[in-house]
Write a structure and sequence with these properties.
This protein has helices spanning 54-61, 64-67, 75-83, 94-112, 116-119, 150-164, 178-191, 207-217, 232-239, 255-263, 280-292, 306-318, 364-377, and strands spanning 3-14, 19-21, 24-26, 29-39, 44-50, 127-129, 134-135, 168-172, 196-200, 222-226, 246-248, 269-272, 296-299, 349-351. It is an alpha/beta fold. A 7-stranded parallel sheet has the order 7-8-9-10-11-12-13. Strands 1-4-5 form a 3-stranded antiparallel sheet. α6 (150-164) packs parallel to α7 (178-191) and α8 (207-217) packs parallel to α9. The protein is globular and about 60 Å long.
């Protein structure tokens, strides 16, 4: 095969309600860019990129001179063509590389009639378990969807357990004062005896606050405490003072950082993100390093639609040391751009797609619908909160939202 064309289409897909986090919010929708890589045999491989708009579409189109005529089976060459580490000092293309890699692996699988996991060594599991991934949420314009109190949080978690069968619960914090979020987290854990929990304030706490918070929840059935503070040295200091394993998706996101963490441990569990690491293959390589040094791994979520979810499932299918449930924003979406609609959860897990390539197809009508919605609504500032004009956080943060 040879690549003959690449296309990018930005879409925005509504969420059940605006999701709050330590830097701001997702303003009631996700903005994503769908990438299509066409080969000379007429096959089209699919990729997905976070964010969008003219800049993302132009960035993808800017790769066309690199890619036309390239054999999509040569995925290792892509890393050096598009994201050579010295060139990336001037033009970081890691997430662009990931989207292209997804599409090239999809093309290979489609051409051979096999799922991507067969190209990566074959699956060791048929289903990937997921955590519930709970957020504090703003209310919608009609007043529905708010999650601000412990009672609202627990009620929403119970709905998700009934609907999807989750038995692991992750709370995204860093929004309200730490003591308030601690009480909400404890209420969540106590509402589901026998279930496991994890907490993630996105690095917003000082080292000292993170230690205090960790000690206050050590009696719960924690998987891990994720990014309680910022930086490898800060995480190392927290790790020395708590019995809870620490996890990250922010300070170990490449092989240099992984090597530093192996030599001087600061993190126990690495959350592998197929976008942040530059593709599925990079995550498989990183999982092998973690297996060698007995670091835990999980699959991270960066706000996916069905195409990137498929990459997460293909990754989860092949790594033997996936010892924790994966994260996914997916259940917060109202819809998707893949044929057949959203992939279903069954007993807290999603089946690994069995079709060729990534195992998902584009719904062209949905793609057009949500591309039109993007053109109507445009982007939103991920690092701002619509309810707090002019606010932005410091690290560590001390200016919390008011729970009242």
């Amino acid at each position: 095969m040879k690549i003959v064309d690449i296309r990018a289409t930005t879409v925005t897909v509504p969420l059940e309600a605006p999701l709050r986090h330590s830097n701001g919010a997702h303003w009631g929708r996700f903005v994503r860019t769908v990438v299509e890589v066409e080969a000379d045999n007429g096959l089209i491989g699919l990729g997905e990129l976070g964010g969008g708009g003219q800049s993302a579409e132009d960035a993808i189109q800017g790769l066309k001179p690199y890619l036309v005529g390239h054999d999509p089976a040569r995925t290792e060459a892509l890393r050096w063509m598009l994201a050579n580490p010295t060139a990336s000092l001037y033009n970081n293309r890691t997430q662009l590389l990931a989207a292209i890699e997804f599409a090239c692996l999809d093309l290979q699988g489609r051409a051979l009639g096999v799922p991507v996991h067969e190209l990566l060594g074959g699956k060791v599991r048929d289903r990937v378990p997921f955590a519930s991934y709970l957020f504090f949420r703003h209310a919608n314009e009609d007043g529905t969807g708010e999650i601000r109190t412990a009672d609202q949080l627990v009620a929403h978690a119970k709905q998700l357990v009934d609907q999807h069968g989750f038995s692991v619960h992750k709370l995204k914090g860093g929004v309200f004062p730490p003591d308030y979020e601690r009480d909400c987290f404890r209420a969540l854990a106590e509402a589901f005896p026998g279930h496991r929990v994890r907490f993630d304030p996105n690095g917003a706490f000082s080292v000292e606050e993170a230690i205090r918070f960790a000690r206050a929840i050590e009696d719960l059935d924690n998987d891990y405490l994720e990014d309680p503070t910022w930086g490898l040295n800060g995480m190392r200091r927290v790790r020395e003072k708590t019995r809870i394993p620490l996890a990250t998706n922010t300070v170990v996101v490449n092989f240099e950082q992984l090597a530093a963490n192996v030599r001087d441990p600061a993190v126990d569990v690495i959350l592998l993100d197929t976008t942040f690491w530059g593709g599925i293959r990079a995550c498989v390589k990183a999982a092998g390093v973690c297996e060698t040094f007995q670091l835990g791994i999980a699959v991270h979520s960066s706000g996916e639609l069905g195409i990137q979810l498929a990459t997460m499932l293909q990754l989860g299918a092949v790594v033997p040391n996936l010892s924790f449930a994966a994260d996914a924003h997916y259940h917060h979406l109202r819809d998707d751009i893949i044929a057949g609609g959203k992939l279903p959860y069954v007993d807290g897990a999603i089946a690994v797609p069995a079709g060729p390539g990534l195992g998902v197809e584009l719904d062209r009508d949905k793609l057009a619908e949500y591309a039109a919605l993007y053109r109507e609504l445009g982007n939103y500032p991920y690092d701002r909160d619509p309810a707090r004009p002019g606010w932005y956080p410091l690290l560590p943060n001390t200016d919390w939202a008011d729970p009242a």
